[in-house]
Specification:
Elements (H helix, E strand, L loop, with lengths): L6 E4 L5 H6 L6 E5 L8 H13 L2 E4 L13 H14 L3 E5 L2 E4 L2 E7 L5 H18 L4 E3 L14 H12 L2 E5 H10 L4 H7 L5 E7 L2 E2 L4 E2 L8 H14 L4 E4 L7 H15 L11
Parallel strand pairs: 1-2, 1-12, 2-3, 3-4, 4-7, 7-8, 8-9, 9-12
Antiparallel strand pairs: 5-6, 10-11
Helix pairs in contact: 4-5, 7-8
Bound molecules: fe (ii) ion.
The site of fe (ii) ion has 4 residues, from loops.
């Protein structure tokens, strides 16, 4: 088992050169799985070069784990091939649905939070983990609507899913804050309910205040209330690899690294339960 630091960034094409020429500026990288699946060329060859220098987390956006469609076997086959080639320390996707009747809507859509959704998710996560031969992590998404058929609050729903499915949790601290404003709950109480032993990674990102709701835009620096929540999370749940998501209005690599270093500074002096190891 090898330990590494916590500082991560998303590997995006504008930063390929920067990462390759200065890999020690971060401790690991996360990539969007679909951008490297079923494809060759520059993206995959770049990823393989980065992989020689840094641990990689694979983060998917099309697993469609919450859909009522049968699981897409071709997608899983391609994901498995990528996992075998990259040997990532985390394979993750989102606790959501992204399409139905074989149509991908390219959006992370919310699920009704009730027992029947949990039952469906547990069965489908089991099939994915069986197929990949490893655990996956699912991420809490930002949402803008709730369903009348909701029976559970979001924190209870997430906890139930990851515990019953025996999978891991990618905890997006910005999404917790965005949802706390959009759906009027206490984000600190939410974080207290998170199953610490299942959390394998944190996401941080910027959002946009649209007046009567917060929009998860990933196009700005992390906001002050999210930094406060991050420090609370670090204390409560422990030290985990963290990532700044900056996917729109992507800044210069130096600016992104500054934001990662800011997060790193904030964790100093806080209780760190354990190092993450691969
Ligand atoms: Fe995220």
């Amino acid at each position: 088992m090898k330990s590494f630091g916590h500082k991560g960034v998303g590997l995006r094409p504008p930063h390929y050169k920067d990462i390759l020429s200065n890999p020690s500026s971060v401790d690991w990288c996360e990539v969007i799985s679909e951008n490297y699946m079923d494809t060759g060329g520059r993206p995959l060859s770049t990823l393989l070069k980065v992989r020689e220098m840094l641990p990689i987390a694979l983060h998917g956006v099309s697993l469609n784990i919450g859909s009522s469609d049968v699981l897409n076997r071709d997608y899983l086959k391609n994901l498995k091939l990528l996992v075998e080639g990259i040997e990532p320390f985390i394979v993750s996707d989102h606790l959501c649905w992204t399409g139905i009747e074989k149509r991908n809507w390219h959006d992370l859509l919310p699920l009704p939070m009730n027992e029947s959704t949990v039952d469906s998710l547990v069965s489908r996560i089991d099939q994915v983990q069986e197929t990949l031969g490893r655990r996956i992590a699912l991420e809490n998404i930002s949402t803008y609507v709730r369903f009348q058929s909701d029976e559970l609050d979001e924190a209870d729903f997430i906890r139930l899913v990851v515990e019953r499915a025996d999978c891991d949790l990618l905890l997006d601290v910005n999404n917790v804050f965005v949802n706390s404003v959009n759906h009027n709950f206490d984000p600190y109480e939410y974080l207290k309910k998170m199953p610490a032993d299942r959390v394998v990674q944190y996401h941080l990102a910027g959002h946009t205040d649209k007046g009567d709701f917060l929009f998860d835009t990933h196009d700005a620096e992390v906001s002050d209330p999210v930094w406060d929540l991050f420090q609370f999370t670090w204390n409560k749940i422990g030290a985990r690899p963290f990532l700044i998501e900056w996917d729109d209005k992507i800044p210069e690599f130096e600016r992104l690294v500054q934001e990662v270093e800011k997060a790193n500074e904030m964790t100093k002096g806080l209780r760190a339960e354990k190092e993450y190891a691969i």
